[in-house]
Design goal:
This protein is of the alpha/beta class and about 300 residues long. It has one domain: Alpha/Beta hydrolase fold, catalytic domain (Rossmann fold, 3-Layer(aba) Sandwich). It contains ten helices and eight strands. It has an eight-stranded mixed beta sheet, sandwiched between helices. Helix 1 (about 20-35) crosses helix 7. The two termini are about 30 Å apart.
Length: about 300
């Protein structure tokens, strides 16, 4: 699985001895790297088209920006699994999850989406899982328009994708979504960016994270302090929280904050040795957890 590409260029913003002007300048430069996509990703071939006959589908958002998805259809399917990618990645980066879910939901359609300013979707301003809520809602509407008002939907999100789904659910904007699978969600963009500054560069997150937050809010009107915990408190869709014990990107403690505050039906499953969900070696505990969750939806 590709490493989160958006963080490769992170600078040690609070390095010892840096002047205030330097910290401000570097914080602003890094903010721009986070906020903007400077070129559209090349549309590379993948097993989604060659093996699963995925087809390109497009919708437009409220700003007339074209959003892209890859749809794997099954005959007479009454359920669709929507897969949402992490920050800086794209739908095709989630291809290894398809065979994993195909064996567990063999009769369901699978829709892999590109968020705005990611993959083959248009746009250059990223939404941080906050503005991306509207993308999730529009894809939800697309599925119901395409397959009918009784069509059922399950949503799986990885990191930012999970945050966008939980945020949308907590705002009560989703229809016919019978279950959410959250994989590696974090408490807020502010928290995860600050954590990466400390972890990747052994630097204090203050004042850099404060400057980054302020700059992003001023430039694109997104408050990265907006917390998914706030929306988990109002999430009444059954949610299965997955998290890797030794997650090298999102610390394990964040999932407990989300799970504990989640209002509705919820299940927590910690992956002990695996890095990704699709790496999981099946176990009795796991089989019972996932099977029971899906059967009860």
């Amino acid at each position: 699985m590709a490493k989160e590409k958006s963080y490769k260029g992170l600078l040690a913003l609070t390095a010892l001895g840096a002047t205030a002007a330097t910290v401000i300048s570097l914080s602003n430069k890094f903010s721009k790297k986070l906020m903007y996509r400077h070129h559209k990703n090349e549309d590379r071939p993948s097993i989604l088209e060659s093996k699963y006959a995925a087809k390109d589908v497009y919708i437009k958002n409220q700003h007339d920006i074209q959003l892209h998805g890859l749809l794997i259809e099954k005959e007479n399917a009454d359920t669709t699994l929507l897969i949402a990618h992490p920050f800086g990645l794209e739908a095709k980066d989630m291809s290894l999850y398809v065979p994993y879910f195909e064996t567990r939901l063999p009769q369901a359609n699978i829709l892999l989406i590109d968020f705005c300013a990611h993959g083959q979707s248009d746009g250059y301003i990223r939404g941080f899982g906050i503005k991306d809520v509207q993308d999730i809602v529009l894809w939800n509407q697309y599925l119901l328009k395409t397959y009918g008002k009784k069509h059922q939907i399950i949503m799986y999100g990885k990191e930012m994708g999970a945050n966008a789904i939980i945020n949308a659910s907590g705002k009560h904007l989703l229809k016919n979504v019978k279950g959410i699978i959250s994989d590696g969600a974090y408490t807020s963009p502010y928290d995860i960016i600050g954590y990466r500054i400390m972890t990747d560069y052994k630097a204090a997150k203050y004042p850099a994270i404060m400057l980054i937050s302020k700059y992003i809010k001023k430039a694109i009107h997104i408050d990265i302090k907006e917390s998914t915990i706030r929306y988990a408190r109002h999430n009444d869709i059954p949610t299965l929280y997955f998290h890797t014990k030794n997650d090298d990107f999102v610390p394990l403690k964040m999932v407990y904050s989300l799970y504990n505050k989640n209002r509705g039906e919820k299940v927590l499953f910690i992956l002990k040795d695996e890095k990704y969900l699709y790496d999981l070696q099946e176990s009795d505990d796991y089989e019972k957890t996932l099977t029971t969750f899906i059967e009860q939806l």
